[in-house]
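Example 3.2
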Amino acid sequence: MTLRRLPENIVNQIAAGEVVERPASAVKELVENAIDAGATKIDVVMREGGRTLITVTDNGRGMNAAELELCFERHATSKLPDDDLVHIQNLGFRGEAIPSIASVSRMTITSRNDGDENAWTLSVEGGRKGTLEPVGAPQGTRVEVRDIFFATPARLKFLKTVRSEFGAALDVIRRLAMAYPAIAFTLADEKRVALRVNSAQGDMFEAWLDRLGAIMGRDFADNSIKIDAERDGVKLSGYAGVPTFNRGNATMQFMFVNGRPVRDKLFTGAVRGAYMDLLARDRHPLLALFLDVPADHVDVNVHPAKAEVRFRDAGGVRGLIVGGLRHALAEQGHRASSTISGQALGAFQAQSMPLPFQSRVQNADHGQWREGAGGGMTHGLADQAYAYQAPLSSPGQPQAPGSPLSPEQHGQVQELQAYPLGAARSQLHETYIVSQTTSGLILVDQHAAHERLVMERMKKQLAEKDVARQILLLPEVVELDEVAANRIAERAEELSEMGLVLEPFGIGAIVVRETPAMLGECNIKGLVQDLADDLGELDTALALKDRLDDVCATMACHGSVRAGRRLNIDEMNALLREMEVTPHSGQCNHGRPTYVELQLSDIEKLFGRR
């Protein structure tokens, strides 16, 4: 075969294969052009998932007649004023997308520049350009793409269902709408408007939160924290959900680099690292992060559709993301997701329960008891119920349950109620602490809460290289399978730095001589077995200090106050006070909430008092 130059239409079709994979790709390119044109309102309409029609209308700067003709030529652009491919300040090149899309569809562009008396329209069918004509139209640009891939029908076979293709375009618009809250977006099909967001007002963070709430849900706006960090000229901004507000997949994690939505492995790994000791491995936080990087520190042209980027200092960017997220999360202290209380209230149902008896009422005239309708309660139980509801006992007699506190106790409760987690009042099922605040009540899972407190104490001691140990009076021998025992023995030196001193004890056994003092009386056998399982899942090449959070979480779980242990009021209050000053105490080591707060106003609604 001899070397030859391909025809222009084939070149454009090859380029289209790189840039336009599906209708959503065309939508992305055209909407990015509208954003670069300074539009404040962008409307997108699709028919049959974009197969038959895609229209993108904006109110941006528009093009004059000469620019409209030139925009269909390959590599014609207004976005490289100084021919510098490094300092790119926009989303894309008009000359890349428009000729590529026009080569595989029937495209018409109508555009009016602010200085022109009328608009101009030009059509291209399968790469063949039509005649430029003047028309009447408002300022801005309207692009119509009909019968996409009609010139390359084989590509149509690879498109998915109408719903899937429209869903892909919806995802594209949502991401761009998050990055540009000052722009109003709509996306509609033949049946409905799937997305409509108005231009957000206020400063950048307020606008972001308003837009993110509109797209990711109001719950996200209520359960997210502000991220604002900077290092070496790289700025990280946005919002991240508190750990207890999580999902089973990572579809609600969004990353933007210089206003460009990207999907990057570095970002995914950094987020997982930041939430490592706050969430279980199968749970994922919700967040939207915006990274501003100097243009010469990032390459946005490593992917045909610019879906990936390459950083000059990838390690520094990862460190900024991990550090920025961890710092913001630590500042939240004991905060947990507000949706948890809503879910708890939703579990309550007002019920009218049929009772086996009606209360017996004393006849004032005859001094007799009269049985109510449906009476089925024995006289003994009825007497006990009546006695419980009777007035308080006279002086010198025992008080009935629920009697008021002494003035001194009442003053102490009033004082403690002012704390964020309130004053402990009771313990339910020897597992849950009931606390009273000035505005409602709080229900605390004592095991989950103490688990987090122990873990944070352990991490602090390890950072200070001052882990207190307790020597076991009788060393504990733990039998394991031979592989697990060897795995533990190999890490004995590293474990000793964490306060757990052990050594091999024959084949398939380990003897534990010292444990971290903060664990108290713990299940040593269960602890060693769980550590052996964890070490089996970890990369053997990694030092334990690199997986410090995993190991600390396992130890903390065995050293915390267990469910079923009775606590007195002082112990409960001490637990609440420590939670208030401990970072991340709103969730346990697995990402589950440690407490639920119920506002008094919401409780009153349950009983129809509001």
